Amino acid sequence: MAMPADTNAAGDIFGGWVLSQMDLAGGIAAGQRALGRVVTISVDRMTFIRPVQVGDVLCVYCSIPTVGRTSMKVAIEAWALRHRHGGREKVTDATFTFVAVDDTGRPRPVPPLDAEG
Ligand SMILES: CC(C)(COP(=O)(O)OP(=O)(O)OC[C@H]1O[C@@H](n2cnc3c(N)ncnc32)[C@H](O)[C@@H]1OP(=O)(O)O)[C@@H](O)C(=O)NCCC(=O)NCCS
């Protein structure tokens, strides 16, 4: 939920807060796909279509359309659920790229989909 601490001096939610929630969500999705540690390597262009206000719940949806050798492109959409239970409006979307890394932070191959057994 967007809280007063996430606002700028004018009372609007920082775009960086939204980006950070998307990075967190994408990191969870990529980490689940890669079965381990991942890092964000890039974020494509973002446009903020609608504002987020205090009391809105930010809903973040992820899908992974592309998996490379060590990288994954995660398509991420952020929607604002107005005042916790109102209508939903799309706020922004972006493609984040995550890289699976080993314990030393070096790229490692993303395991095949059935690697979990
Ligand atoms: C991610 C990191 C380990 C990659 O190291 P690297 O030596 O550049 O690795 P590589 O050149 O082997 O590239 C790894 C993968 O990233 C992809 N990649 C490299 N640069 C990229 C870019 N700018 N955008 C998207 N993907 C990129 C490569 O295509 C490769 O993917 P593939 O294996 O699926 O083909 C290194 O750049 C890093 O540690 N970056 C900092 C990450 C971080 O701290 N993020 C949080 C910032 S606060």
Strand and helix map with partners:
Blueprint: H1 15-34, E1 38-43, E2 57-67, E3 71-81, E4 88-100
Antiparallel strand pairs: 1-4, 2-3, 3-4
Coenzyme A binds at residues 39-42, 68-71, 97, 99, 101, 105, 107.
Physical arrangement of strands within the biggest beta sheet: 1-4-3-2
Describe the global form: elongated
Helical segment tally?
Answer: 1
> From N to C, what is the helix and strand string?
HEEEE
Query: What share of residues are in beta strands?
Result: 35-45%
Please provide the count of β strands: 4
In total, how many domains does the architecture comprise?
A: 1
The separation of the N and C termini measures: 36 Å
Verbal overview:
The longest helix has 20 residues. This protein has a single domain, classed as Thiol Ester Dehydrase, Chain A, CATH 3.10.129.10. The chain has a 4-stranded antiparallel β-sheet with strand order 1-4-3-2, with helices on one face. It has 117 residues and is an alpha+beta fold. The radius of gyration is 16 Å and the shape is elongated. The model has no long low-confidence stretch (mean pLDDT 95). Helices cover 17% and strands 35% of the residues. It binds coenzyme A. Coenzyme A binds next to strand 1 and strand 4.
